[in-house]
Design goal:
This protein has about 160 residues and is of the alpha+beta class. The chain is about 15% helix and about 40% strand. The protein is built from 4 helices and 10 strands.
């Protein structure tokens, strides 16, 4: 029987992004069977330590399945405590019944921010720094993280 991997809020993990590069993140919130994580804005070509990550800003915060951790795909390298004043970021999503409507989620409140005209572009001026809403699988987390690091010029 495989060993059961335990995890806690504040656990920092490393993930393989392919081509000998690594990404790093931290568990901020646990709501079984999902976790809310932040992914660090770092140069993925260099190894990172807990000390350097403690002072690093995040590039993305998302809800995801716990499978990356529990299957051992992402390896826990230590723990950096989470500040008690931690606040969830704003999120954006498309309306399930009308994909042209963009909804902004702030805490427990949701607001329609725009009606698009058959465009697949998300209006940045309307959502500002809001992050995509949904629960990502472990592979989707890696794809999104690679996208964000590339967009920031880190890869």
């Amino acid at each position: 029987m495989p060993k059961r991997i335990k995890y806690n809020i504040g656990d920092v993990f490393a993930m393989d992004l392919g081509n000998n590069i690594k990404g790093y993140g931290r568990i901020l919130k646990i709501h079984e069977p999902t976790i809310f994580i932040e992914l660090y804005k770092i140069d993925p070509k260099s190894e990172q330590t807990l000390a350097t990550l403690a002072d690093t800003e995040s590039i993305l915060s998302i809800w995801c399945s716990k499978n990356g951790i529990t299957k051992g795909t992402w390896s826990i390298i230590g723990n950096i405590p989470v500040n008690d004043e931690f606040k969830l970021p704003d999120f954006w999503k498309m309306d399930a019944f009308n994909p042209n409507r963009i909804i902004l989620v702030k805490g427990e409140h949701a607001f329609e921010v725009t009606e698009r005209e058959n465009s697949y572009e998300v209006p940045k001026e309307k959502i500002k720094d809001a992050q995509p809403y949904g629960i990502f699988g472990e592979e989707a987390v890696i794809i999104r993280y690679k996208f964000e690091t590339k967009k920031q010029g880190l890869v």
